[in-house]
Fold:
Amino acid sequence: MSPPSTQRSRALALLGRQPILRLKDFAARDVGPETLARLVREGVVVRVARGLYQRANASADAGHSLAEVAALVPKGVICLTSALQFHELTLQMPSQVWMAIDRTAWRPRIEYPPVRFVRFTGTALTDGVKRHRIEGVEVAITDPARTIVDCFRYRGKVGLDVALEGLREGLRRRKVTSDQLWHHATKMRVWSILKPYVEATAADAA
Structure:
């Protein structure tokens, strides 16, 4: 193991390149937990959750929370209101990060940031899911059309007003098309629910 001073400089260099890192990421680069504990005591590094560290002066915007959660749950997918906010299709600022995990997956226990999990099955975890790089972390997020469809599927959880806002903004800003919405809604078997809203929104915009 490298000397503490060398480990310290390496840890800070790593966090300079990637603001959020897991304990195993440091271990892979020969930085021990004692060095991280010392940096935390000094206030240079913050332990934001079990096994997850960041620079004390790291940004605190919405994207930062998505990166934190994705680092903790690499197989999860950012969805619903959190995905709407990422795509700038809502003025809502979710108080928790919405993340989808597999129906049979173990439910992670996360201290911070607050996360609300939903269960997706099979291809629902891959269809319309794109990967984005946020603060050096690969984050899986449903695309705009898939996000809107999911909001209508889970309208009882996120609210119909949120789903309608996403739909209006998506069509108005041309981030989605009716065909894209039909594609995902048909797969999810909610097109009969979504169709009247799509037609009404399109008519209002005409």
